[in-house]
Amino acid sequence: MNTLLEKRLSDVRDGVQHLTSYRSVLQAQIDSLESDEKKLRYRSDLHQKCSEVFKTWLEDSMKKNVDSMAELATTGLRHVVYDQELTFKIKQEPKYNRLSMRFVLEEDGNEGDPLSSYGGGTAVIISLVLRIAVMARMKMANLLLLDESMVALANAYVPLAASFMRQLSEQTGVNILMVTHNPEFLNHAHVAYEGHKDGSLKLKRLRVSHSDDQS
Fold it and tell me: Of 155, 205, 207, 211, which one has the greatest count of Cβ atoms within 10 A?
């Protein structure tokens, strides 16, 4: 009887030791998982904060670039359309978790759409400035092709538009190749050609500006 009782007590002690060892193994695994969870949570929080900082920096940088381009477009507008105090703005608005940009022309506090409210001439100037600004800042190919792009501009503004295009090209380093019938643009071009199409396109150099002769 005593021998049977002692055997059962021994089996119980062995079972308790086995359970204690198993508990120690499980506790070690729990501690390891909790440690990994803390590390992952720290990294997740760090990535989230870095993402927020980067997003803020990116939005601020984008806003500065956009505002700078809007100011450049405003300068071009006021240089060409000299008899109107036009201000071009690019309004950035959140839309579907992204920044949406809306183009606005202002005059005396009144807002309008550049394409419909002020005629096609202003839209042409704005488009020209934005394309050249993007090409210059993104270091894209430095050749902009235009085909009678200024036909929507009133004749009174054409001479200033021609001089502005030349200044913009010189300041940004972006070359402009323009097809036109308007002599004002020919007069302000660095190099001008006359084309005749009689089965094949023949080009004849008309003039070279003085600055090109000296260089």
Answer: 207
